[in-house]
Amino acid sequence: MKKTQTILTPLLLCLFTGLTSVATNSFANETDRIDQFIANYSKTYVRLGLDGEMDLSYQKQIKLFLESKTLPQQTAFFQQLKKQSTAIKQSPVLKQASSCQALQLQQIDFEIELHQEKLALIKRYQALGTQAHISDQGLAKSSLGKAWYALLRKAWLTTDSQPEQLMEMGKSELKHAQERYLSLQTRMGYAGRDTEFFSYLQSAAFDYPDGSTPQADYEHRQAIIEQHMTTLFFPNSIHAPHIKASTQGAALPVDGYYEPEEKTFYFNRSKSHYQRRDIDWLLLHESTPGHHYQSRYAIEQAACPTPLPHGFYSAYAEGWGAYVETLGKELGLFQQDADELGAVEWDLVRSIRVILDVGINYLAWSEQDAKDFWQTQLPMLPALADREIKRVRNWPAQAITYKLGAVKFRQLREAEQQRLGKNFDLRQFHHSMLKFGPLPIAILDQVLVRDTP
């Protein structure tokens, strides 16, 4: 070996041994070739540390990318992986692939494309030398800011959504949520009386008094949901999560969250008051049929015996959580207009996040631009403006995942209803969406292709 030749590290040697064996080994069954390819991919993906690569902060995220010790190995891995994937797709073996194998191959193709784009951008950034910088004032003020934003959009949204498309989606969803809000305001007797309505919503009538707890209300609503689940989901052995008070308080500024390892939904008094009208939608999102049900279903009803090492695709997981919030009435909740209003208020927030995210990170809106836009669109929610603007500036694209994913689930449901007509079964649709576990939004429609009755 010449001195100028690259010496393979043990990791690369193991990688190439595993991948080339897919092409050279003889298999008792041709689909074993696909299984071996998927297994080798998963093992090396974890070994390279790619399963823990994402961070909410764009500054920390880009730093993780740039300072990775395995960039040469990643480059070689994804180049060889693409060759192997192409060979499998051009082989007759693909026709013998199971639904699970076919979806996982598509999932791997998405990851290959994403990481090769990442590696190419890192190379471009490094070529800038001392001129390269990541500003603490936002991506828009950073070197290659739009390129970084494109990469983070793809990583978080798991699809190639362009800024213009996202902006239009955000505006459309915001308009729809505003119409729902005004309808509820009218039903609650405050038509055209915005100031009085706002004062009413801020009154103590919607707060749990000091020393009280929403525990009983959460448990009561969970029991109602359980009674109605079989109207929207097939019967199964999944039990409702535990419901407990969190001790995190202001250290974790959210009203509730789900811990999958503990199978527990925690409500959290992070503020001085806890809102009654947030109970229904938050339980739906975090508990059943939200994150708890979604994660347990992927385990207990698994269509794939061995999932790929991407345990959390945000657009899928948060999109599902936001989607099931719309099922409240069918599941026996939203018995009061105010309960539904709480869900609509957060639909407003999730919709405007999309517009702010694109505006700040792609169109270089100033903080004042963002505040002015918020004030013209959501004057009824002034207290949330600063927090949400800061969030989308510091966590580009992540906040879009809720709305983008929810819209995708809704669109797929509508398409299936139109395709199947009277034969459409919402329980089957939900089963199809959940049983393969988390997937990139880019290939989610393939679930229905692979799972057609």
List keywords for this structure.
single chain; mainly alpha; 2 domains; 58% helix; disordered N terminus
Structure, described:
The structure is a single chain. The protein has 453 residues and is an all-alpha fold. It folds into two domains: 10-132, no CATH class; 163-406, no CATH class. It is 58% helix and 3% strand. The protein has a three-stranded mixed sheet, with helices on one face. A hairpin with a 4-residue loop joins strand 2 and strand 3. Helix 1 (10-24) packs parallel to helix 4, helix 10 packs across helix 13 (337-361) and helix 12 (314-324) packs across helix 16 (401-420). The model is unreliable at 1-11 (pLDDT under 50).
Topology:
Elements: H1 10-24, H2 30-47, H3 58-66, H4 71-89, H5 99-127, H6 145-157, H7 163-187, H8 194-201, H9 215-228, E1 242-245, E2 256-259, E3 264-267, H10 279-286, H11 291-300, H12 314-324, H13 337-361, H14 367-377, H15 385-394, H16 401-420, H17 426-435, H18 445-450
Parallel strand pairs: 1-3
Antiparallel strand pairs: 2-3
Helix pairs in contact: 1-2, 1-4, 2-4, 2-5, 4-5, 5-6, 7-13, 10-13, 12-16, 13-14, 13-15
